[in-house]
Design brief:
Layout lengths: L1 H8 L5 E3 L2 E3 L6 E5 L6 E6 L3 H19 L3 H17 L1 H12 L3 H21 L6 E4 L5 E9 L3 E4 L7 H13 L3 E4 L6 H12 L7 E3 L5 H9 L6 E5 L2 H11 L5 E5 L4 E5 L5 H13 L9 E7 L3 H13 L19 H16 L3 E4 L14 E4 L16 E7 L2 H9 L3 E2 L1 E5 L3 H10 L4 E4 L14 E2 L2 E2 L12 E9 L1
Parallel strand pairs: 7-8, 7-10, 8-9, 10-11, 12-13, 12-18, 13-16, 15-16, 18-19
Antiparallel strand pairs: 1-2, 3-4, 5-6, 6-22, 11-21, 14-15, 17-20
GO biological process, one term: gamma-aminobutyric acid catabolic process
Protein name: NAD-dependent succinate-semialdehyde dehydrogenase
GO molecular function, one term: succinate-semialdehyde dehydrogenase (NAD+) activity
Length: 485
């Protein structure tokens, strides 16, 4: 307990604006709770509209100088921040587990994953380039250059409190953009501590500004409509993403949206069943199932469906559920009671429609927002869990017999973030990868996220890419210069 309290006490609970830590207007605060117990962890500043405007002013004032900073200097700041994050892994991991619920081992994994975005974009900062060419008529020369978009608004979610921040902040720093970051009210501590680390390595004042608030719409909408803002990046639900895109249209902001998912996980009849089960465990249970990349609909070929379901259910049933700070815990609590109620409703709807619970199916005992790992077979295509993001430790299995049919069923959704499939047929790998209407496809693996790869979806899962060579382009404008001879 002392170590836990020490981690929370290391976080500054104020707003970070213009390089200064300051109270919210009127001294307002809000509580941050531990989902494993429902108890209050601490309180942090609750920003007002005026506080948000002050943060944007600080970002706008710092933009010109930051854009003029040498790429190598920006690179070295990111590299130093990467090394400091790794050094403070234990503190960051404990903060994430305490405010979000995931097991400590998973939180440490997120620190490793999240820090890599800083290392990756430290290397990209010095590789921003344009081109030089002769015009087709030979009379002029064509030159292009890349320049930072400008002050960027960032809205990050609660499920990956560190990585969803570093995935946005890293390329912005590398490109020369200043920022206003609004973390989720459920999990502000990790972002506040990250701001402290960036301050510690010498990030200039005003480049990063962090506003924590319970009034996300009220604080952020005026900033989105402010002509000083030049980009908006959001990770979260599709309904909220649609509203933000509408708001951003007034200023024609550059926008990147990483929104909801409804990932299919297809196991073909020729797949290695044991490997497919391991892949399904990763795709379904990473982050307690609270991930937009989580396997939402499991399609298993009829020839192996019984074997797969039996082995998968056994592994799910063996998972240890409890407070993420506990030794050996593999499944922590969901984020809040609303999440538990949603998962409960989805399970009830599926069983009412004839599905069968193989294991789990109920919330955990005692305090906190727990739901037991659950496997359901015979899930009909019209069940709610076949259409909506589950965002919890529940896996619904459907059976198929035909490749074309399962691809059609997999694509029969408004979402298009990620899809997974397992097969040993090389020709099928090509066919199905091309046919799936998704921004990312995992073949014979249950995790696709990688800082070196472009992350993003199509259709109602959003647009834009984060990570990879493509990630920094979201923060750069292309300027063309025509030179007459």
């Amino acid at each position: 307990m002392a170590q836990t309290q020490q981690a929370v006490e290391q976080v500054k609970k104020q707003l970070f604006i213009g390089g200064e830590w300051r109270d919210a207007e009127g001294g307002k605060t809000f509580e941050v709770d531990n989902p494993a117990t429902g108890a209050e962890l601490t309180r942090v500043a609750d920003a007002s509209v005026a506080d948000g405007e002050a943060a944007l002013t600080a970002a706008a004032d710092a933009q010109a100088d930051w854009a003029a900073t040498a790429p190598r200097d920006r690179s070295e700041l990111l590299r130093a921040a990467y090394e400091l994050i790794v050094e403070r892994t234990d503190v960051l991991a404990e903060l994430m587990t305490l405010e979000m619920g995931k097991p400590l081992a998973e939180s440490r994994g997120e620190v490793t994953y999240g820090s890599e975005f800083f290392r990756w974009f430290a290397e990209e900062a010095v590789r921003i380039s344009g081109r030089w060419s002769v015009a087709p008529n030979g009379q002029t020369r064509l030159m292009t250059m890349k320049q930072p978009v400008g002050p960027t608004l960032m809205i990050t979610p609660w499920n990956f409190p560190l990585a969803m921040g570093t995935r946005k902040i890293g390329p912005a720093i590398a490109a020369g953009c200043t920022m206003v970051v609004k973390p989720a009210a459920e999990t502000p501590l990790t972002m506040l501590y990250l701001a402290q680390l960036l301050e510690e390595v010498g990030l200039p004042k005003g480049v990063l500004n962090v506003v924590t608030t319970t009034d996300s719409g009220g604080v952020m909408e005026p900033l989105i409509r402010d002509p000083r803002s030049r980009k908006l990046t959001f990770t979260g639900s599709t309904p909220v993403g649609r509203k933000l895109v509408e708001q951003s249209a007034d200023q024609l902001l550059r926008a990147s949206m990483e929104l909801g998912g409804n990932a299919p996980f297809i196991v073909f009849g020729d797949a290695d069943v044991d490997k497919a089960v391991e892949g399904a465990m990763l795709a379904k249970m990473r982050n307690i199932g609270e991930a937009c990349t989580a396997a939402n609909r499991l399609f298993v070929h009829a020839d192996i469906a019984d074997e797969f379901a039996k082995k998968f259910a056994a592994k799910m049933d063996a998972l240890s559920v409890g407070d993420g700070m506990g030794d050996g815990v593999e499944v922590g609590p969901l984020i809040n009671q609303k999440a538990v109620d949603k998962v409960t409703s989805l399970v009830r709807d599926a069983t009412d429609r004839g599905a069968t619970i193989v294991t789990g199916g109920a919330k955990g005992d005692g305090p906190g927002f727990f739901f037991n790992p659950t496997v359901i077979t015979g899930v009909p295509g019209d069940a709610a869990m076949a259409k909506e993001e589950i965002f919890g430790p529940v896996a619904g299995i459907q059976v198929f017999t035909d490749e074309d049919d399962v691809v059609r069923r997999a694509n029969d959704t408004e979402f298009g973030l990620v899809a997974y499939f397992f097969t040993r047929d090389v020709a099928r790998v090509i066919r199905v990868s091309e046919a799936l209407e998704y921004g990312m496809v995992g073949v014979n693996q249950g995790i696709v996220s990688n800082p070196a790869a472009p992350f993003g979806g199509v259709k109602s899962s959003g647009f834009g890419r984060e990570g990879g060579f493509e990630g920094i382009e979201e923060y750069l404008e292309t300027k063309y210069v025509g030179l007459a001879l």
